[in-house]
Amino acid sequence: MPPSVVSQQGTVQLPSSTDSGAATAAVVDVAQTQTSADKDDNPDPPRKLSQMALIPLKHDWVFWHDKYVANATPAEYTENLREISDVNSVQSFWSVYNNIKGPESLSLRYSLHVIRKGIKPLWEDPLNERGGAWNFRTSKADAPVVWRELLMALIGEQFAETIAEGDEIFGLSVSARWNSDIFQIWNKDSTLKDQSTVMVKVKDILKGIELQSPFYKAHKDHDHFNSTTK
C-alpha cells in the first residue's frame, strides 16, 4: 500500500510512483481529517507534505482574480484580471489555496479562476476561443466545498477520463452572485461537449450538493465575445 502524508487540509494518499499523473492520488483524499493519522497504533503514520519531496502536477496551473466592472470593454476586463500565483506541485497548490480567500469572500460579480498556465481566463484567448464551459450554480453555503473539491479534481486530472479524445480541460472558475455562486469548468473544444461526461463526474464528486441550472455554453456564443481571429 502506498505511503500517505498530511497536508494542511488532511490526509493525502500518495501514488506508488511519481510520474506525470502522480497528483491524482495525492490530492483525492486531501479533505479527510488527521484524527486517524495521529493514533499511536497506526502502523504507517502519514508524513507532512512539507517533509516530502515535491509531488509534481501533470500541468502547471495559475490562480487568478478578476474584479467586476459594469459594461467593461475587453481591454478593461483584461486590465482588471490579477494573476495571484502559479502552482506546479501538490505542495505549492495547498500553499496558495490555504493563503487566499475563497468564494465566500468574493464581492458581488467578482471571480476566482484556476486556469492552465499559458492561458488567460478570457474567452478570446487564442487557446480558449474555440472552447466553452459547463456552468452551474450552487448555494452560497455549498460554494467553498464545491470550489475545494473541484479544484482537487482539476489538478488531480480526474476529468481526463471524462472528455473526448482531442479535448482538454483548461480550468475552473467561480463567480459570486446575490444568493448563489456560478461555477464554470472550461474546455478546449466546444464541438466535443456531447462526447463528454464531465457533469456526471461533477455530480459524483459533489454527492449530496444541489447543482442548480446546469448548462453548457461555447465562448463564441456569448454576446460580448470578441474573437481576435474572426
TrEMBL record:
Organism field: Actinomortierella ambigua
Signal peptide extent: none
InterPro entries recorded: TIF_eIF4e-like (IPR023398), TIF_eIF_4E (IPR001040)
Record's compositionally biased regions (Basic and acidic residues): 37-47
Low complexity biased stretches: 16-36
Gene Ontology MF annotations: RNA 7-methylguanosine cap binding; translation initiation factor activity
Gene3D superfamilies: RNA Cap, Translation Initiation Factor Eif4e
PANTHER family named in the record: EUKARYOTIC TRANSLATION INITIATION FACTOR 4E RELATED (PTHR11960), EUKARYOTIC TRANSLATION INITIATION FACTOR 4E TYPE 3 (PTHR11960:SF66)
Keyword RNA-binding recorded: yes
GO term, biological process aspect, one: regulation of translation
Family the entry assigns: Belongs to the eukaryotic initiation factor 4E family.
One GO CC term, this protein: eukaryotic translation initiation factor 4F complex
Protein name: Eukaryotic translation initiation factor 4E type 3
Keywords, ordered alphabetically: Initiation factor, Protein biosynthesis, RNA-binding, Translation regulation
Bias kind Polar residues: ranges: 1-15
Start and end residues of each stretch annotated as Disordered: 1-48
